[in-house]
Amino acid sequence: MKTKEELNFQLEMAKLQVEKKIADTKCDINQKIIDTPLNDYHNLAAYANQIRLPFLKSLIPYLFQVSHNFFFLQLKRVLHLSRTPIIYVDTPLDSKIPFVPEKIKIYMDFIPFFLRPILMLSLRIDTKKSAKLDENFMKLISQMYRNTASIYNFCMTTTHRPKYFKGKFKTIHAFDPHLLCVPSLHVTLCTVTYAYYKSLLGKDVLPEEELKERISEIRSYAIQIIESVLFVKQHSVNCIPAAIYMVSVTTPENFFTEEDAYELIDSIFLHSPEMSAGLREEVVTYFKAFFKRCYEENKTSEHWQDPLKNWLVEFAKNTNQKIKGYC
C-alpha cells in the first residue's frame, strides 16, 4: 500500500504532466497563428472578432463614419438633396493602364485587409491589450473618413468606368454611385494600416522579428490593393497620390513621413507584369509630381485641404468642367 507521501508525489507529477501538455498545446496554437499568413485568416472570423464585446467599443464610431461620410454623402447627392459639384478626374494616362477585371477580388478585399491583423493580434496577445490597439487603430481610420469627407463636400469626383458588368462588378455598379474618387479611401486605408503596424515596432506588442514579418505582409498586400484600384478602373492616377499626401500631413509626426510616402510610391507596380517598364515609370513619375506639389504647397497653406482643393479647381478649369464659385 502506497504511503501518503508517495500518493502526493504521484499527484504532483500528474499535475505537472497536465500543465506541460496544456503549455505544449498553447505553444502549438501560438506557432500555428505565427505561421499562418494574414491572407489565410478567414474573412468571416475577422468580422466576427470585431463584434466581440472588447472590440465593439471601437466599431460603432467607425460604422457611423462609414455611413455618414461615405454612403449617405453619396446618397444625398444622388437624390439631389445636396448640390456638391461633381467632376471627372481621369486623364489620358489612365487610358494607357490596362483594365484587368481579375483584380476585382483584391480590390474588394480592402476591409478584411485591415481587420485580419486585428484578429491576429487578438489571438496572439492579451485581449485587453489587443482591444486597446484596435481602438487606437479604428480611431485613426475614422479620422480618415472625416478627412476625405472634407474634400468630398467641396467637390465630388468620378471617372469613366468600363461598361463591364460580370461577377462582382455587378455589385459595384449597382451599389456604388462612384462619386468619391479624390482622395481614394482604398489607398488611404491601405496606407494608414501599413503605417500603423509599422509604428508598433519597439513597443513590445509582438517579438520584433515576428512583427516585422507581419508588417512586410501588410505592406505587400496594401500595394496590391492600391494597384488594383487602377486595374479595375475605380480610380484615376490622381486619386492615389492625393490619398498618400493626405495621410502624410494629417497623421501624427513621424507616423507616415515624406520619405515614407516616396518609398511607398516607388514600390507601386514594381512587380506588376501587366505594366510595361515605360508605363510604370510614367505613372510613378506622375504620382511623385502630384504628391510633391501638394506637400510643398501645404507648407504655406492655412489648411491641409487647400492644396487638394486648388488642384481640383485647376483640373476642372483645364478640362472645361465647373466647380460653382470657382470655375
Written description of the protein model:
It is a single chain. By secondary structure, this protein is mainly α. Helix content is 68%, strand content 2%. The chain has 14 helices and two strands; from the N terminus they run H-H-H-E-H-H-H-H-E-H-H-H-H-H-H-H. The chain has a two-stranded parallel ribbon with strand order 1-2. Helix 13 packs across helix 14. The protein is globular, with a radius of gyration of 24 Å.
Question: What is the topological layout?
Answer:
Blueprint: H1 4-35, H2 43-50, H3 53-78, E1 86-88, H4 92-96, H5 104-107, H6 110-124, H7 127-152, E2 156-158, H8 168-175, H9 185-199, H10 208-231, H11 239-250, H12 258-267, H13 277-298, H14 305-318
Parallel strand pairs: 1-2
Helix pairs in contact: 2-6, 3-7, 6-7, 7-9, 9-10, 9-11, 11-12, 11-13, 12-13, 13-14
One letter per element, helices H and strands E, the order comes to: HHHEHHHHEHHHHHHH
CA-to-CA gap between the ends? 101 Å
Which geometry do the CA atoms define? Answer: globular
Number of strands: 2
User: Main sheet?
Assistant: 2 strands, parallel
What would the average pLDDT be, to the nearest integer?
92
Search tags:
two-stranded parallel sheet; 327 residues; mainly alpha; 14 helices; single chain
Outline of this structure?
This protein is mostly helical. The protein is built from 14 helices and two strands; from the N terminus they run H-H-H-E-H-H-H-H-E-H-H-H-H-H-H-H. The protein has helices at 4-35, 43-50, 53-78, 92-96, 104-107, 110-124, 127-152, 168-175, 185-199, 208-231, 239-250, 258-267, 277-298, 305-318, and strands at residues 86-88, 156-158.
